Amino acid sequence: MVMITEGASTELRRLLSYHAALPRQGVRLRVDEMGSLKMAIDGPHLGDAVIRQNKALLVIMDASVSVLLSKSVLDFCLPDGKPKAEFTLRARPAD
Question: What are the Cα distances from residue 65, in Å, to 14, 17, 36, 42, 61?
Fold first, then answer.
């Protein structure tokens, strides 16, 4: 399953609060046809992988996205040359 940094976790919680997500909703991660990461507020469906933080739902992914992102780290940071922070995916460091 994708690893989530503290920065990404903080921003995901902010997004859920900003969009007045219900207690049983989280941020759904999906990958579009072009391979870009997309996010939406949603509730979990049967077979989804979920990530909770302090017992609160944070991230939801279907099984295929969970496998695709299993060796990745989701971060929210200021990438090189970018004027503002954004979500980024990078490879998880080797153990």
Answer: 23, 24, 12, 15, 6
